[in-house]
Amino acid sequence: xxxxxxxxxxxxxxxxxxxxxxxxxxxxxxxxxxxxxxxxxxxxxxxxxxxxxxxxxxxxxxxxxxxxxxxxxxxxxxxxxx
Length: 82
What we know:
Blueprint: H1 3-14, H2 17-31, H3 33-40, H4 50-65, H5 73-79
Helix pairs in contact: 2-3
């Protein structure tokens, strides 16, 4: 273990319990900032438009007609010419 890592462990062990959750949140943000941003993002409270409802219904129907399975990644890439 590196000296900095050992020092971090020693400091964490000295923290009062009430500060641990704040430290965990900070560390999670450092380690995975995208997950932290998603976790802290506001709920999408914008109403669904009629077009969106229709498109979602069409997608659900397509899935139902195709056994509940989407298009495999390789097939989608082939269709896109990639």
